[in-house]
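Ticket #4471: structure export looks truncated?
Reporter: QA, pipeline team
Priority: medium

Steps to reproduce: submit the single chain below to the structure queue and open the exported record.
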Amino acid sequence: MATPAEKATAAGLNADLVMLDGFVEVEFMVDRLKRVKDLPIRDDDILLCTFPKSGTHWTWEILNMIVAGKAEYAKHWQNSAWLEYRTEEELEALASPRILHTHLRPSQLPETVWDKRCKVVYVRRNPKDCVVSSFSQMSKQIWKDNPTGKPSYTGTWDDFIDLYLNGCIPIGAYFEHTIEWTNISEAKKNFEICKVHYEDMKQDCVREIRRMADYLGRPLSDKTYQDISEACSFTNLKHANEKLKDQTYHFHWQGDSSGYFRKGTTGDWKNWFTVAQSERFDRVYEERLNETFPY
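Actual output as written to the record:
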């Protein structure tokens, strides 16, 4: 029987894939993922934890501005602080408090994150919008180390949904990721994290920025919250990332787009899913998470 990695390759995922601890991973990431557990963690580290395409760039920039106390963009792309991707030396060079971001599950992180009671912000988004965004990105993305020059995914939309629901996509399986993060407070002895929903940020960004600032113990003025919200609007943040920021940690993509910023909206999944695909997604979601699909 084919492994999930083999199924992903057969369906059109153009990368060297392997199985690691029961999950599909890109081969060149294996050594990096194995070393994450031993990375030094500082007492004042702030971790931003998301499933891919859940508003990571957006929230990371907001957190940087909260810490800075003003609506000023961080110098580098968020990739400069990507926990599982940067070297230990690169992470050590970051000034405190570091705002590290990761797509990993809690069980993959250094145990010292929990021992030191680091601040953790977890962002969750409608997975139907996540899968649309992932498909759109991976259908255009060319991996840096891919000698073929092909996009990361060249299969069909229907097959991509199937891979997504069955956890055959690299970086993580949505349901396992969600279950672990949803239950983290119980698993880690009442560890307090700040849970944020992408849709809530779209509805009232100022309110959610204030909530994150309060959690971090860094309250700001109402005007500063407004300024941060405006600076981190989709249009302004896309411009800043593509035109203003140092591009050292920017990945290369097809065309002249950053690849990360597509629409920044909610509900675009309705333009992609057929009725049958949507109903199947809801059914699997409810079976795996034991809750009614809430979006």
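Status: closed, not a bug. The export was complete when the record was re-opened. Leaving a note from the reviewer for reference: The chain has a mean pLDDT of 90.
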